[in-house]
Amino acid sequence: MRHVVVAAMMLATPALADVERMEAQGSVDEAFARLQDAVEEAGATVFATVDHGAGASDAGMDLGASKLLIFGNSQLGTPVMQEDMTAGLVLPLKMLVYDDDGQTYVAYEEVEETFDDFDVDDDLEVFERMEDALENFATAAAGS
C-alpha cells in the first residue's frame, strides 16, 4: 500500500518547468550573497536557505557548492494561491546558485510554465512581475 501512496504523490506533483540559467562571476558564496541582498533590497521575505553542497558533505557524498534561496512576496504569491491553493506546492519562489565544473550559475524556473499545471489565469499580472523580479535577481547575483 505504501508504494501506491508514493506513486500517487509523485503523479500529483507538478512537473519541473523550463529552467533559466545564467553564468555568474565569482564563487557560489559570492553570487549567493549578491542574490540574497537583491531579494532583501526588493522587499521580499527570505524564508529559508538550503545548502545542498553541505548536506551532501554531511552525508559523506560530494556534490560541490550548491545553495537554494527560498523567498517570496505575499503581494505576488497570494493572488495565485487565491485562484488555486495547490499553487502553494511551488510557492514561495526559489533560485539556485551552483558550481558546474568551475563555473558558477544562477538558475530558476520560468514563471509562466511553473504554474501551467495549476488552475490559474495565465494572464495574471503578478506573473509578469514575478518573472521580472527573478530576471533582476539573477542579473544581480551574476554580478553583471
Automatic annotation (TrEMBL):
It comes from the Bacteria. Residues 1-17 form the signal peptide. Pfam families: DUF302. Residues 50-108 form the DUF302 domain. Keywords: Signal. This is DUF302 domain-containing protein.
